[in-house]
Design a protein that fits this description.
alpha+beta; 1 helix; four-stranded antiparallel sheet; 8 strands; about 140 residues
């Protein structure tokens, strides 16, 4: 291989790697620039508990992850809502202490523009709830 071919190959590899790096950074930033998280750990029943307030005109809440677990041998479920409309769930856990679920939405759930989302559980038992996401148009 001549020096000219080596230089051309090196340049093409550099451009390709640079483009991949730029693409991966843009994909990662989509989920972190306006990210939010909600954490709740109690024995209280949740009834339309605010997870995230309306983000403003032209913006939507996107949900990416839900983690829910119970510490009591009582059946329980969790739902994520917009006003009274259930948009995710209900997700049911059987009556075994220490049961839980972890959901990662490969395609984030886009909520209605400029709408508050809430969480509701079915029982007043020891539990933990974590929800994460981001805000975007």
């Amino acid at each position: 291989m001549t020096n000219e071919n080596k230089s051309t190959s090196t340049l093409l590899i550099g451009i390709t790697l640079g483009a991949l790096l730029l693409y991966s950074q843009n994909k990662t930033k989509q989920y972190t620039v306006n990210s939010w998280n909600y954490h709740e750990n109690s024995s209280d029943i949740l009834t339309n508990e605010t997870v995230h307030t309306a983000p403003g005109e032209g913006l939507s809440i996107y949900v990416t992850d839900i983690v829910f677990s119970t510490g009591t041998a009582t059946a329980c479920n969790v739902s994520i809502k917009e006003d009274v409309l259930t948009i995710l769930g209900p997700y049911y856990l059987e009556p075994v202490s220490g049961r839980g679920l972890a959901i990662h939405l490969m395609t984030p759930k886009k909520c209605t523009t400029n709408t508050t989302i809430t969480a509701t559980t079915s029982a007043a038992i020891e539990h933990s709830l974590d929800i994460t996401g981001f805000i975007a148009p």
